[in-house]
Request: fold
Amino acid sequence: MELTKSQKNRQHRSPAAIQRRMNRYPSNWKSVRKQIIARDGMKCRSCGATHSPNNEGLSVHHLDHNSKNLSPNNLVTLCTVCHRRIHEGE
Ligand SMILES: [Zn+2]
Ligand SMILES: [Zn+2]
Reply:
């Protein structure tokens, strides 16, 4: 079923949706993420998979599952496969 124009607009403007998106990660997350991937040698810490130079395919996982805890001790580089496995195993 297709959404009408007014429904689309309402979804787009919903303050709750915008806040959810913004609260997900702190604003410096992108640069922290890059630092962690560089620290880990651009490799998955679980299986050692390496990825393209632009870091696509690698994720940075929060060991305590708190997306606001950007302590380097809390962050590990994982490939998307290992990352998914961790979250699915919860
Ligand atoms: Zn992996
Ligand atoms: Zn994760």
